[in-house]
Design brief:
heterodimer; A: 247 residues; alpha/beta; Rossmann fold; six-stranded mixed sheet; 10 strands; 37% helix; globular; B: 287 residues; mainly alpha; MetI-like fold
Chain lengths: 247, 287
């Protein structure tokens, strides 16, 4: 079952909240340096699957392995170590409102990676410059537009130098005019070869950058394939009707 | 057809509208002042005409009595100030520690959590004056060596214990007011639970509860007078002594004025803080 090139291997994962099943034995394989898009209706389990991958939620059953050596679902898993290697960006940005942009970004590197203040700041400024945000470094998050806030959130996750980035519907809370700048940032990361798994409602964007598209339905990966396969020739009737509804 | 586009800095108000609204504002101010003066005049007239007013004034607002007792009252008030400034930092420390103790989840710390909960339940449920009686009279009665018998010490200790429980609850509410998504973001960066508390949750919690904390400070300023029951000559006790030696209640009014002089600025400050934080919260949006 485990493919040779499987970098993230999700195998038969179950997760219920208050007796209501959200993931029902779902499996997923992600190759290194690839981009995977999770699509599907709200409540199909996309966000929960992402949160299980970086251990923000503990699974009820099944396993998740990263790079064959990091068992995310082990009972004695070092959660902090997992989260150092796997970054996540949320729909609602979740920036720390009491800290300046620069401090938001350097908090993890200084406190978790134990880097020096100076090195962290230099690295943070480089990242901010790369994403066109250098002029915002000393602003508080409440001075940012939604698109800027979300890009800062991406930079904050990147500053931990993760091997994998998870994006949880990062454009869903944004004004349509601001979606583009955030997607540009993801394109940039994709080009840099980072392994990306993203839950998204942006079908055209998924089509454009995803190597693999997975349609989640009722808590399992119902159908997956390349973007062309899934969008042009969906095999299952549920996939077809979902795509019809969102297009 | 295009509308002319003024530059984005321009603020334009029709001069006629502006003149009208200024006139209205002047009229409103005038009416307000007139109404207030009229009301005061009415009260003075009614109270002054009552036949008992002279007796009331003699008993509570006697100028000679006031002048005689006020310097002594001020001097005694210095003790209230000292009690307040010793108690307040201790209350903040205890309140914060107890609030934190109640949030730890690790099973090893269950005894600490239970103790903290018990402490809050007990001291929030018992009247402050009862705690003062219990400690202030009870502890010196033990006559244990090394245990102080000073009334001021035990009075202050009782205030600290009683207010510590209240402030712990205020802090706990503050911790609860920080959205869980903040913790999720912090943990997703690999911050430990302790680091999350220290760098992400507590700074926001303290900011959120500063206005209610200031209210508790004001309350504590007044409650320093409760220590009077143990005998130390603070401002209320001083006023009581002056009153009973002259059978005139003006010293009580003097003591009240001293408290008011201190609490009113503090209340205004707390109000201003509250307005400011409410405004900030509205502007924040991105939380």
């Amino acid at each position: 079952m485990i493919k040779q090139d499987s970098y993230i291997c999700v195998d038969g994962v179950w997760k219920a909240f208050d007796g209501y099943p959200v993931l029902r034995g779902t499996s997923l394989d992600v190759a290194q340096h690839s981009a995977t898009a999770l699509i599907g209706a709200s409540g199909s389990g996309k966000s929960t699957l992402l949160r299980c991958i970086n251990a923000l939620e503990t699974v009820d059953a099944g396993s998740i392995m990263v790079n064959g050596d990091l068992d995310v679902t082990a009972f004695n898993a070092d959660l902090d170590a997992i989260r150092r290697r796997i970054g996540i960006v949320f729909q609602s940005y979740n920036l720390f409102p009491h800290m300046k942009v620069l401090d938001n970004i350097t908090l993890g590197p200084i406190r978790v990676l134990k880097k020096s203040q100076k090195d962290s700041k230099v690295a943070a400024m480089e990242l901010l410059t790369r994403f066109g945000l250098e002029s915002k470094a000393l602003d508080y998050p409440d001075r940012l537009s939604g698109g800027q806030a979300q890009r800062v959130a991406i930079v904050r996750a990147l500053a931990m130098e993760p091997e994998i980035m998870l994006f949880d519907e990062i454009t869903s809370a944004l004004d349509p005019m601001l979606v583009g700048e955030v997607l540009d940032s993801v394109r940039e990361l994709r080009a840099g070869g980072l392994t990306i798994v993203m839950a998204t409602h942006e079908m055209s964007f998924a089509k454009e950058i995803a190597d693999q598209v997975c349609f989640l339905h009722e808590g399992v990966v119902w159908e997956s394939g390349t973007a062309t396969e899934l969008f042009e020739r969906p095999r299952r009737v549920e996939t077809q009707s979902f795509l019809q509804r969102v297009h | 057809m295009n509308n002319p586009a003024p530059d984005t800095e321009t603020v334009y108000v029709d001069p006629l509208r502006q003149a009208r609204s200024r006139k209205k504002a002047r009229q409103d101010a005038l009416i307000g002042v007139a109404s207030l003066l009229g009301f005061v005049a009415l009260v003075v007239l009614l109270v002054g005409r009552s036949s008992d007013w002279d007796t009331v004034a003699q008993t509570f607002f006697n100028g000679d009595q006031f002048a005689e007792s006020f310097p002594g009252l001020l001097q005694a008030f210095w003790l209230n100030v000292r009690i307040f400034f010793i108690a307040e930092p201790l209350i903040l420390i205890i309140g914060l520690l107890v609030a934190l103790a109640r949030t730890v989840k690790s099973p090893i710390f269950l005894p600490i959590r239970v103790l903290a909960t018990l402490y809050v339940d007990i001291f929030r449920g018992v009247p402050t004056i009862l705690v003062i009686f219990l400690l202030g009279f009870g502890m010196p009665a033990l006559q244990l060596t090394g245990v102080p018998s000073d009334a001021i010490f035990w009075g202050t200790a009782a205030l600290v214990l009683s207010y510590g429980a209240y402030v712990a609850e205020v802090f706990r509410a503050g911790i609860g007011s920080v959205h869980p998504s903040q913790t999720m973001a912090a943990r997703s960066l690999g911050l430990s639970s302790l680091q999350n508390n220290r760098f992400v949750v507590l700074p926001q919690a303290v900011r959120n509860v500063t206005p209610p904390l200031l209210n508790d400070f004001i309350s504590l300023q007044k409650d320093t007078a409760l220590v009077a029951v143990l005998g130390p000559i603070e401002v209320l006790r001083r006023a009581q002594i002056d009153t009973s030696s002259n059978f005139n209640y003006t010293p009580y009014v003097g003591a009240a004025l001293i408290f008011i002089a201190l609490t009113i600025p503090m209340t205004r400050f707390a109000d201003a803080m509250q307005t400011r934080s409410a405004r900030k919260k509205r502007a924040g949006g991105v939380a």
